[in-house]
Amino acid sequence: MISELEMGKAESELELGLGLSLGGGTAAKIGKPGGGGAWGERGRLLTAKDFPSVGSKRAADSASHAGASPPRSSSQVVGWPPIGSHRMNSLAAKSAREEEEAGKKKVKDDEPKDVNKKVQVGFIKVNMDGVAIGRKVDLNAHSSYENLAQTLEDMFFRGNPGTIGLTGQFTKPLRLLDGSSEFVLTYEDKEGDWMLVGDVPWRMFITSVKRLRVMKTSEANGLAARHQESNERQRK
Amino acid sequence: MGASSTLLMVSHGHCLLCLLFSVVRFIYIKTFNSFDSFRIKSLPSLPSLSLSPSLVLMDRRFPFKVLEHIFSFVDSNEDRNSVSLVCKSWFETERRTRKRVFVGNCYAVSPLKVARRFPKMRSLTLKGKPHFADYNLVPDGWGGYAWPWIEAMAARRPFLEEIRLKRMVVTDECLEKIAASFRDFKTLVLTSCEGFSTDGIAAIASTCRKLRDLELRECIVDDLGGDWLSYFPETSTSLVSLDFSCLDSEVKLSDLERLLSRSPNLKSLKLNRSVTLDVLESLLRRAPQLVELGTGSFSDELDPEEIAKLTKALSELKQLKSLSGLWDLLPEYIPLLYSLCPRLTSLNLSYATVQMPDLIDLLSRCSKLQKLWVMDLIEDKGLKTVALCCKELRELRVFPSGADLDETDVTLTEQGLVSVSEGCPKLESVLYFCVQFTNAALVSIAKNRPNFRCFRLCVMEPFAPDYRTQQPLDEGFKAIVERCKDLRRLSVSGLLTDKAFEYIGVHAKKLRMLSIAFAGDSDLMLHHLLSGCQSLKKLEIRDCPFGDTALLENAAKLETMRSLWMSSCFVSFGACKQLSQKMPRLNVEVIDEHPPKTRPDSSPVERIYIYRTVAGPRLDTPEFVWTIHKSPEVGVSRLSIR
Any stretches that span the bilayer, and where are they (chain B) (predicted)? Predict the structure, then answer.
């Protein structure tokens, strides 16, 4: 059960809003030679292998990258470089603005670079109705709405028997996105309006979202109406 | 600190008591002769007196009133803590006279105990979350709630005047409670706090009639609008410092103008970014007595007349010593600041994306500068100018601008810091972000500036060796700790082996706080540190390959420290259990998504936070924090009150 969870989470380790650093993988994922001693089946410690741009004596000979995450630069590690969040946000806002101003002057096909810049904006707050404590999710480490919904469902409606999720209930699959459950997922955009999640293309969503809220469907009626309206408009 | 460390060793019997007696007598004589205030710290070392039985009874000769008077000159809390250990009557006297209470870890002691112990408390300073929370390494909801403290103080210490909180969760209810309970409330300083909205601030503004300081530093605030400013009553004229630089929304200009006009004592004003440049002049005109100014955004287009007016208003600030804010500072507006430069002692340009040539123009005029925060856009050349012109510099922080990600040419290298260390004789505190470094540079820096008290180097590439020699940076940091005998705080980075930490353990005897990331080879690293650094109080480590053995061997050390944070290291759950059972006065908190019970004892935990406490395991842990129970049968408990 646990290994299943960990396997399933292997990709989303990065994203969980607990701000976990990139540790805690499974033995299967590690794939490092046992001769590394303490590096065996322990938590997945980041090593120099993960930073291939650095020519250190620890650079990997073994091609154990197969199962592991792609090489990352230092800016994709949680909490690194150690800059306070206010400063991070200010930097991110600045680079976002510069990108806008630069427009499409430079055609950059090195996607990873852009991701680097945006990494710092990644974490946004998520609150759920009825739950006192909010959480954070890293949007940049998700690729789609389904992905995000899955993470949120895991976060707020934890499946482990014996542990009580934040809401004190046991899981049922949530379906935050299709309106079939008690809760819907909404977000506040840059203009301060609350919208239903799912209306706009994913890329547009992550640039405009400020924070998320898991709202009771009953309260979200006004938004639902807007959602239907815009659907109708689109159909016309 | 000779006398106070002497005071600590009470167990060494009456020869010490006689030294104390001579200290006390010295103070007694001094105070009644000259009534000058001084500190025990500054006393020269006293010759030991010959023993006499009557000296042992000295505390009976000094009535409470005398002791009280003497202790009123003891300011530092460290000294007061020492004083309180001497004997019962000194403990009693000290606790009845302590006005400023500092609690470095809000979970180390219960609020009730603190409230009861210090009846004359006027000022309370608390720190909550571990330092690494600043970098998103502590999950949301971990703890650090201010409410139990506010509640306890409100009930028992209504004369409390000042509250300073750092990294704590403060709700609107907390703020409302403060406003309602403390009649003479004067000072609220919240640093890196979260959990409240502008409504809470409005409550403080409207109700605290004697409010002097309201400072929100880098807080995460639920910003519901700028109305809170209008809640300062028209009768309030007591404001001395106001800092709302971390808020987003606009405040009403007229409210701010009126507030400034009726606050003749206002010395420090830090605006937020949404205060635009065109209104700055009108604000400054109403507060020419400012000593500290944090501007808003500095980028609007002004017409020549407006520029002239603003220049004049700035030049009228004859007392201004500290300048910050300066968001989006445009190069063409830099000359406006020239009139301020000669008097400036503190300049924060870390949000101003100004390039090097313009920075040079500005900094070359700041000959009195003591504190400079700037971005790496300053480059080596700019730092050379600082080295030439700012001879009074004591603190330098160079932050990354992210420009290196763009591949634009920002040439900030290790040479910049070397220049400053050469040119600025008073430099004692550095925070430097740099892509790579060399041992030679570190050795030079250490040679130039043995007076460092705080040295934080962040080589941004993890595991980066000396880029010239490909060697680890061990030798460089060795030079730092060897030469800088007064080093209190150190952050290391780059490629480091266990050797580096052996050097630190051997030499850094006064080191109190150490931060480590991506370093070391084995348990030896931790062992060197815990067994060597005598003064170590706070140790925070991430992504280093060790844990169990060193931790268990040096368990006793942990009780002499405030806290230890380890994340993504190889500390097993079994070791945590053993440690907790061995050390009754430590809280061993395991912060892990998965319940430790469901995994074998040998599996590593994601993060641990260990701190000494007399309050026992805390009752407000969220579901991902487990405090290891002291008794082996219980194993892990998560006592929580929902």
Answer: 7-28
